[in-house]
TrEMBL record:
Domain Response regulatory positions: 6-123
Matches recorded under PANTHER family: RESPONSE REGULATORY DOMAIN-CONTAINING PROTEIN, STRESS RESPONSE REGULATOR PROTEIN 1
Keywords tagged on the record: Coiled coil, Phosphoprotein
SUPFAM superfamilies linked to this entry: CheY-like
Pfam families: Response_reg
Phosphoprotein keyword on record: yes
PROSITE patterns per the UniProt record, alphabetical: RESPONSE_REGULATORY
Coiled coil region boundaries: 164-191
InterPro entries recorded: Bact_response_regulator (IPR050595), CheY-like_superfamily (IPR011006), Sig_transdc_resp-reg_receiver (IPR001789)
Protein name listed in UniProt: Response regulator
4-aspartylphosphate sites (modified residues): 55
Length: 229
């Protein structure tokens, strides 16, 4: 069963949160509410999120200040932030949103379909990254078993070949999906989404090289896995 991605909705007005939930419910992901910047930061301490929808105008800690805190934390700095605002003070105000680390800046009232489409892109990228981490974990497990097996200190050749084939097939499926997503983004997407997709492709390339290095005749099967960061 595929685990759902979490989307953080931050707005001090309950009616706005309700509207966002209605718009994004079709994505069939887990929607988490926060009615203030402080509440959002607390949620980010324990959960991983695919994307954050952050209202700019909030009493106390506003959206810009909340985003600054999010970007300062190592755990949360890479989470995409989409700013939502009911006011438009021109290019300077928009620039402040991007300077605070937002990947997009949307003025209310917005087109529900457009917002849902933008959020779905970041959810899909998040899911691909989760799949990639799973493949990397399996690969690391294979390498560790090669040096810590309770039988002879090494995995049997037949068992190793079978696991490598399974890993290669799973990785190929993720590579195919990532390629299709990149083509879709090339046609119509903002620069931030394209850059995130390119980062994912670089991770996939590094993992594929590591997997190829484990093939018989490709060198030692106990060497370090290239960094996926």
């Amino acid at each position: 069963m595929v685990q759902k991605a979490k989307i953080l909705l931050v707005d001090d007005r309950p009616e706005n949160l309700l509207a966002l939930e209605a718009i994004l419910s079709a994505l069939d992901q887990t929607l988490v509410r926060a009615s203030s910047g402080e509440e959002a930061l607390k949620a980010l301490l324990t959960d991983d999120f695919a994307v954050i929808l952050l209202d700019v105008q909030m009493p106390g800690m506003d959206g810009f200040e909340t985003a600054a805190h999010i970007k300062r934390r190592e755990r949360t700095r890479d989470i995409p932030i989409i700013f939502l605002t009911a006011i438009n003070h021109g290019p300077h105000h928009t620039f402040r949103g991007y300077a605070a680390g937002a990947v997009d800046y949307i003025s209310k009232p917005f087109d529900p379909w457009v917002l849902r489409a933008k959020v779905s892109v970041f959810v899909e990228l998040y899911m691909k990254n989760c799949q990639l981490r799973e493949q990397a974990a399996l690969l690391r497990l294979q390498l560790e078993n090669g040096g810590h097996s309770g039988r002879t200190g090494a995995v049997e050749p037949q068992e190793s070949a079978g696991l490598l084939a399974e890993l290669s097939a799973r990785l190929a499926a993720v590579e195919e999906q990532a390629e299709a997503l990149s083509k879709q983004l090339d046609e119509s997407a903002d620069a931030a989404a394209v850059a995130t997709a390119a980062h994912l492709e670089r991770k996939l390339t590094g993992l594929r090289r590591a997997l190829d290095a484990l093939e018989p005749g490709a060198g030692s099967a106990t060497g370090p896995v290239p960094s996926q960061g």
